[in-house]
Amino acid sequence: MIPRALASATLKPIVLSLLAEGESYGYEIIQRILDLSDGQMQWTTGTLYPFLHSLENEGLVEAYWQAVENAPRRKYYRLTLSGRHALLQEKQQWINVNRILMKLWGPSPELAWT
Amino acid sequence: MIPRALASATLKPIVLSLLAEGESYGYEIIQRILDLSDGQMQWTTGTLYPFLHSLENEGLVEAYWQAVENAPRRKYYRLTLSGRHALLQEKQQWINVNRILMKLWGPSPELAWT
DNA sequence: GTAACCTATGTTGACTTTCAACGTAGCCCG
DNA sequence: CGGGCTACGTTGAAAGTCAACATAGGTTAC
């Protein structure tokens, strides 16, 4: 299992990246992260729902309700332009942090970027 | 500036890595991280000192007081065997998280692992 | 028809982490 | 002797996390 601090640090980039691929909603995002991480990242609704609300308050995403046949209604989230900028920034910050760790660990074949 | 969550996620691996290179003490560790990150990671004593105490409680480091000429005494920290194992684990977890992000971002030349 | 489970959104209360601010103290410089 | 640096530490307020709870519609199986 990935430790809380590390999962926490990647929540924003991951959610923004998923939404960059297309609109989605809370419940699905939780499942997709669980799937993407082979079960190593298990976000709960108590974390993700408030987090999505904060993204909305920051203007990084827009939300709308969608009625669905034979299922509860869903609250879909869509990236805004501002959200796309934020995603680029997140990627850049990841690169910066990586550079710092590489200063300590050195280039390692087992860490190859693939 | 690196966001809090990301800095937080790297504190443990960075401190363990620094101590793997040799013994050090709180005040110096703060300076070395500041230097290593080109000023992007500014840990305060309110965070680092309690964190070092928790590493000690976990048995990852050992501490001893050292008197110094013309300066206040220092509390030096040294990695234990258990701490070395923890460092390896931290590296592995970083690799895992990286793999997850790469699934989303794909191999990118600008992210080359050097 | 009802129990069990899944989808889907949300809140709450307890816990942990973080940080600016403060406190203590020794040293050096002008 | 005031200012700044080194060096350890704590505190109180704010923020983040999560198990648990609440609500509600749907399906499956018996």
Report Rg of chain A: 16 Å
Strand order of the largest sheet of chain A: 1-3-2
Helix fraction of chain A, binned, reads: 55-70%
Number of helices of chain A: 4
Offer a concise description of the structure:
Chain A has 114 residues and is α+β, with helices and mostly antiparallel strands. Chain A is built from four helices and three strands; from the N terminus they run H-E-H-H-E-E-H.
Write the topology of this structure.
2 copies of one chain form a homodimer.
Chain A: H1 4-21, E1 24-25, H2 26-36, H3 45-58, E2 61-68, E3 71-79, H4 81-105
Antiparallel strand pairs in A: 1-3, 2-3
The structure holds a DNA duplex (30 and 30 nucleotides).
Report on this structure.
The structure is a homodimer of 114-residue chains. With 114 residues, the first copy, chain A, is of the alpha+beta class. Chain A has a single domain (4-111), classed as Winged helix-like DNA-binding domain superfamily/Winged helix DNA-binding domain (Arc Repressor Mutant, subunit A). Chain A contains four helices and three strands. The first copy, chain A, has helices spanning 4-21, 26-36, 45-58, 81-105, and strands at 24-25, 61-68, 71-79. Chain A has a three-stranded antiparallel sheet with strand order 1-3-2. In chain A, a hairpin with a 2-residue loop joins strand 2 (61-68) and strand 3. The longest helix of chain A is centred in the C-terminal third of the chain and has 25 residues, at 81-105. Chain A is globular, with a radius of gyration of 16 Å. The model of chain A has no long low-confidence stretch (mean pLDDT 90). Chains A and B meet through helix 1 and helix 4 of A and helix 1 and helix 4 of B. Chain A binds a DNA duplex (30 and 30 nucleotides) through residues 4-5, 8, 25-28, 43-47, 49-51, 68, 70-75.
